[in-house]
Amino acid sequence: MKLSTRLTTLTPDSDGWGVYYRAKAMIAAGTPVIELTIGEHDTPTDPAILDALHAAARAGHTGYASVPGTNALRDAIAARVTERTGVATARDNILVTAGGQAALLATHSAVCDPGDTALFIDPFYVTYPGTIRAVGAVPRAIAAMPEDGFQPRPGPIAAAAAGARSLLINSPHNPTGVIYSRDTLEGIAAVCRDQDLWLISDEVYDTQVWHGDHLSPRALPGMEDRTLAIGSMSKSHAMTGSRIGWIAGPEEAIDHLSNLSTHTTYGVPGYIQDAALFALEQGTAFERRIAEPFRRRRDLALSIVAKSNRIVPVPSGGAMYLMLDIRRTGQTGEGFANALLESEHIGVMPGESFGKCAAGHIRVALTVPDDQLTDALHRLVRFAEGLAHAA
Ligand code: PLP
What we know:
alpha/beta, Aspartate Aminotransferase, domain 1, Aspartate Aminotransferase, domain 2, 43% helix
C-alpha cells in the first residue's frame, strides 16, 4: 500500500549518521570506541528529579494531564522565560510540549500551510528539514558560511524570503556551538519584520552560554508577536528521556497550538510535568551545575587543539559541542570522521551531516568524562598531523 510522500520523504536515504551507526555497531561488537557523536549528557537525570517523578506518580498523577500543561508548570516556565529574556510572559503564552522536537513540529504546523516555504539556516540540527517536510511545507536552506563564523547574514535571508512564511534559527547553535551575536539577531529580526515572517527560535541550549547572557530574539523590538520560542529541559536539566519542553509565544498561537496537542500527544504525562516543575524550582544554580562540565571540557579541548597546525576550532561560545575545521588536512569531514573511527576508534560527526556549509568540519560532542576527552583529542590531533604528512 502506498504511504504518503510526507512520511516517506521525512528522512533522506543517506541521513548523514553513518559514522554514528558504525560507532554503535563497533561498540556492540565489543570494540572500545570513544563516542563523541551524540549530544547527550554523560550523567543520568538527577536522582532528586527522579524522586519527584516517582512521588508524583505514586500520588496518583498518572491519568490524563492538562493538555497545555499544568497551571503550576506553565507558571514556572513563564517566570523562567520572563527572567531570562526580559519579555513579560504569562501562563497563557506557554504550551508544554513533549520536548523541543515536538515543539519544532508543532510550531511549523502552526505557521505553515501545505506548500508554504519555511526557511532554515545551514548548518542545521539534523531533524530540521524533515520536520518542515512533515507538515507539508517546503524547506529552503539559507547558507551561514564558515568565513562569517557561521553567523547568518540578513542579505541572503531577505533574498530567500519572498513567499516564505517562517524562518527557523537556533542559538546557541547545534552543531557549531556558535552564539548568534546581537547584530546577527537584530538583522534577522529586521528581515522578519520587513518580510512578515514568523520567527521560530530554537533556544534549547539557552543555559549553555559560556560568555555573557543568552539573548532571545523574542525580546527584540516588534518581535514578541511574531516569534515562537522553543525551550526544553533535555539539555538544561539532563532530562532528555523525559521528553519535556515548551513553546513561548503570542496567546492566540498558544491557544491553537494547544488544540494541536489535543490531536497529537494529548499532553505530557502529569508525573513528568510535576518532575519538571520540581527541576525548575531548583533554580539557576542547578542549571549551572548541569552546564558546567561542557564549559570545562570546551576549554580543555581548545587547549589541546591549539597545538595543532591542521585543526582550527570554530569560534564558538556555547552548547555541548566543539566544531573543528579540518580542511587543512585535505580531507572532507566525512572522510576524516570515517578514518578516525577506523584507525583510532574515536567517533565524531562529519560536518556534512549538518548540511553543505559545515563541509570539511567535524563536530565533537563534549559528552564524555574529562580524561577520556583529553585522550581522544590528543589522538585526534596526532591523527590529523599524520594525515597532513601523508598528503
Ligand atoms: N533542537 C536542537 C538544536 C537540538 O540539538 C535538539 C536535540 O539535540 C533538539 C532541538 C531536540 O531536543 P529535545 O526534543 O530533546 O528537547
